[in-house]
Amino acid sequence: MAHSEDTDITFARLPEIAPEDIIAHMSDPRMAEHMPLLTFTWDRARLDAFVAAKEACWKRDGLGHWAFLSGGAYVGWGGFQKEGKEWDFGLVLRPQNFGLGMRIAKKALDFARADARIPYVTFLLPPSRKKLGALARLGARAMGQVDYEGERFLKYRLETA
Q1: Residue 159: what are its φ and ψ, rounded to 5°?
Q2: Which runs of E-coded beta strand occur in the chain?
Q3: What is the pLDDT of residues 34-58, one digit of tens each?
Q4: Distance between CA 44 and CA 83 in Å, rounded?
Q5: Contact between residue 131 and residue 110 where contact means Cβ atoms under 8 Å apart
Q6: DSSP 40
Q7: So what's the pLDDT on residue 35?
Q8: In sequence order, which residues have a C-beta less than 8 Å from that of residue 145 and are 6 or more positions away?
Q9: Which of these, 29, 30, 28, 99, lies nearest to 70 by C-alpha position?
Q10: Parallel/antiparallel/unpaired status of strands 65-70 and 73-83
């Protein structure tokens, strides 16, 4: 299903996605391998709180997390979340859709480049992530390590202005 163009990649709001799709995605044991903050079981109550928190970011900041679709099918979620003065970009794909990561990231980053509020984006990755070539190909540079909610992450920055 790989195309040279990204017309089959679309973004939707999280409430538009069937709850069972997101719960199944986040309940896949492979997700916790690189998500140190994923220390709980996903159920409907957890999902509802998650979606409400992400929608609150849209209301507060005018931007937030999307559901990512390929050919109309849910493949993951992510987007921009304001952390202090910085816009952090996250991308959480279903394991069978990891190959879409660069295409989705490029489309989202094109959005950031067109938004004057976002002079740069940051990425926080757990130290367990060893394949970091995609960040280099995007032009991101390492900023060191940071602690976030009690866990250590590698921080990268990408200029978008």
Answers
A1: -70, 135
A2: 9-13, 65-70, 73-83, 86-93, 120-125, 141-148, 151-159
A3: 655 556 578 899 999 989 999 999 9
A4: 26
A5: no
A6: S
A7: 57
A8: 127, 152, 153, 154, 155
A9: 99
A10: antiparallel
* Amino acid making up residue 14: L
Residue with tokens 């209301």: 59
pLDDT digits 0-9 by tens, 76-130: 999 999 988 999 998 888 888 888 988 999 999 999 999 999 999 999 887 877 6
| Cβ neighbours of residue 91 closer than 8 Å, sequence gap 6 or more | 76, 78, 101, 104, 105, 108
- The pLDDT value recorded for residue 2 is 44
Q: Please, is 104 exposed, middle or buried when counting C-beta atoms within 10 Å of its C-beta (0-12, 13-18, 19+)?
A: buried
DSSP 140: -
Domains contained in the chain, CATH given: 9-159 (3.40.630.30)
CA distance 48 to 65: 14
